[in-house]
Write a structure and sequence with these properties.
With about 375 residues, this protein is α/β, with parallel strands linked by helices. The chain has 13 helices and 11 strands. The strands form 2 sheets. It has an 8-stranded parallel barrel with strand order 1-2-3-4-7-8-9-11, surrounded by 7 helices. A two-stranded antiparallel ribbon has the order 5-6. Strand 3, helix 3 and strand 4 form a beta-alpha-beta unit. Helix 1 crosses helix 2, helix 2 runs parallel beside helix 3 and helix 6 packs across helix 7. It starts with a strand and ends in a 5-residue tail after the last helix. About 45% of the residues are buried.
């Protein structure tokens, strides 16, 4: 059986226990990271969200520092740090410090963000986010590899900045690019970055990752080829029947499911989701984004669609192993990231799924 490295995507109680004190929530998820390290997970990821009711990780570097000091082998990162919302030198220095405090275990996930309202509320031009992010990433790499940084760009200007420290990993932590559009795929291939995905159907993702590999070869990098990372919702129980009975309550469920884009508390604010109900402004009408929006609409309404499209894997350990093996052959991922916290699923059910995955699924792919 082909090797797969397994990561955990931790939503940090995004849709469950909303009224719990945040100090308790953070402590509980630090303990979770310690447990998955013992279960054999390769890495641990959170995601940054600003202006969001599930935005419990508004400073990934701060939280991951606590994770780093509580673990010893687990690699850790955010997928992703939202680049357009950062001062680039501060970001580079903070991640470099995290790399030292973890003794070289950082995975640097980068992206631009998709929700227009997050940018409106901070006074950042949503339609310039890709260009801003490009400058941020250029500067971050300069900070990590140079003793002096002078930069004269459209969005940032620095004159003989003297950044400290350089990262523990040399030349720097692995850089991941969250890719959805063909432009993002080409950008990642050109710059020799690892790539990640989490939203499209298996069929679409397989096609996009194939395009990435093709473009990467055309750019004639020296190699080895970067890694491919995929996140999916996963629920494991002792039997297929039990797994489906449990997951059906929270996956594509009107009562127990995740709050859809366009709804929830954000909809009731003055700014709402921005200028378009899909939350992406006029980008919502781009063909690829429209297709993904339709897929997300179906996923919110149909339990069966989630399984058929590969957006979720549900079953006994044996079934999950088989599905992962099929996905590896079809998509070719190197890192498979599991999200066990599905909608408002209660914590005991989530933890049982994680433990079964660690004890019975991971060993099959070592």
């Amino acid at each position: 059986m082909a090797r797969i490295d397994f990561a955990l995507w931790d939503a940090v109680g995004g849709y469950a226990d909303r009224n719990a004190p945040m100090a308790d929530v953070y402590d509980e998820h630090i303990r979770l990271a310690q447990e998955i390290e013992q279960l054999g997970f390769h890495s641990y990821y959170v995601i940054e969200h600003q202006n969001s009711p599930v935005g419990r990780i508004t400073s990934p570097t701060v939280f991951l520092t606590a994770i780093a000091r509580a673990t010893s082998k687990l690699r850790l990162g955010a997928m992703m740090w939202q680049l357009p919302l950062y001062h680039p030198i501060r970001l580079a220095q903070e991640v470099a410090m995290l790399d030292h405090l973890s003794r070289g275990r950082v995975e640097f996930g980068t992206g631009i963000g998709v929700h227009e309202h997050e940018f409106i509320r901070w006074g950042v031009d949503y339609y310039q986010r890709a260009a801003i992010a490009g400058e941020v990433l250029d500067i971050v790499k300069m900070v990590w590899t140079q003793d002096e940084v002078t930069f004269n760009g459209k969005y940032f200007k620095f004159d003989e900045a003297l950044p400290q420290p350089h990262p523990f990993q040399k030349p720097h932590p692995p850089i991941w690019a969250a890719v959805h559009s063909e432009a993002a795929i080409d950008f990642a291939a050109k710059n020799n970055y690892h790539v990640s995905q989490n939203l499209d159907s298996d069929e679409v993702i397989a096609r996009k990752f194939d395009l990435y590999r093709k473009l990467w070869k055309q750019y004639q990098h020296a190699g080895p080829m970067p890694s491919v990372w995929l996140m999916r919702q996963v629920h494991v129980a002792e039997t297929d029947e039990k797994a489906h009975d449990e997951a059906r309550q929270f996956l594509a469920s009107r009562t127990g499911g995740a709050v859809p884009v366009g709804g929830g508390p954000i909809e009731r604010t003055r700014i709402g989701w921005g200028s378009h109900p899909r939350g992406m402004g006029r980008d919502s009408e781009r063909p690829d984004d429209k297709a993904r929006g339709e897929s997300m609409r179906k996923a919110a309404q149909s339990y069966e669609y989630n399984l058929e499209a590969g957006l979720a894997i549900v079953g006994s350990p044996e079934t999950v192993i088989r599905k992962l093996e099929e996905g590896k052959k079809k998509i070719g991922y190197d890192v498979f990231c599991t999200n066990h916290e599905i909608g408002g699923m209660p914590d005991p059910m989530v933890r049982n799924s994680i433990r079964l995955f660690g004890k019975e699924v991971i060993p099959a792919f070592r």
